[in-house]
Amino acid sequence: MRVIRFELPEPYPLLNHSIGQSRFALTRMRQKMARAVACATVNMRVPEPFQKAHVSIERHSCGAPDHDGVQGGAKFLIDSLTTPKLLNVRKPGARQRVRNKRGLGFIVDDGPEYATFDIRAVKSRLCDQKTVVTITEILP
């Protein structure tokens, strides 16, 4: 059983922060999250993604956010853990599209057959704000 644990230096943005943003602002948020995860996991990359995994995400912040905001805000973080996948081209000559193109390949996909998630908020002091991610491989 393999375990990958890393910390991001700040809590991930809540769902309320992304509601009403333009698609360009959302793209920048996705890119920023993927870069933060890439920097935090430089020497932790796996040669092939975990086929089944349990992902635990703790958002340490000084406030007490609501449950929906914590769950929804983790989307960009979870997407950065998945594996990019080429989609089928429907028409000849069409542009190749990629699902999860900013994924770093820790887990196959974020679907229930590939991963389970435990996302929670932890109240902490202002100087201790962070995001802690633990990915545990589930063996068949």
Main pleated-sheet profile: 4 strands, mixed
Q: Roughly what fraction of the amino acids lie in strands?
A: 25-35%
Order of helix and strand elements from N to C terminus: EHHEHHEEEE
Write out the strand line-up for the largest beta sheet, numbering strands in chain order.
Answer: 1-6-2-5
Q: Label the overall shape.
A: globular
**Rg calc:** 16 Å
Label the structural class: alpha+beta
| Count of distinct strands | 6
Average pLDDT rating: 91
Task: Estimate percent helicity.
Answer: 25-40%
- Poorly predicted parts: none
**What is the quaternary state of this protein?**
single chain
Could you tell me how far the N terminus lies from the C terminus, measured between alpha carbons in angstroms? Answer: 10 Å
Total number of helices: 4
Topology of this structure?
Layout: E1 3-8, H1 15-18, H2 23-40, E2 53-61, H3 67-73, H4 75-81, E3 85-86, E4 98-99, E5 115-123, E6 130-137
Parallel strand pairs: 2-5
Antiparallel strand pairs: 1-6, 2-6, 3-4
Structural summary, described in words:
The chain is α+β, with helices and mostly antiparallel strands and 140 residues long. The protein has four helices and six strands, in the order E-H-H-E-H-H-E-E-E-E. The strands form two sheets. A four-stranded mixed β-sheet has the order 1-6-2-5, with helices on one face. Helix 2 (23-40) crosses helix 4. The longest helix is centred in the first third of the chain and has 18 residues, at 23-40. The model has no long low-confidence stretch (mean pLDDT 91).
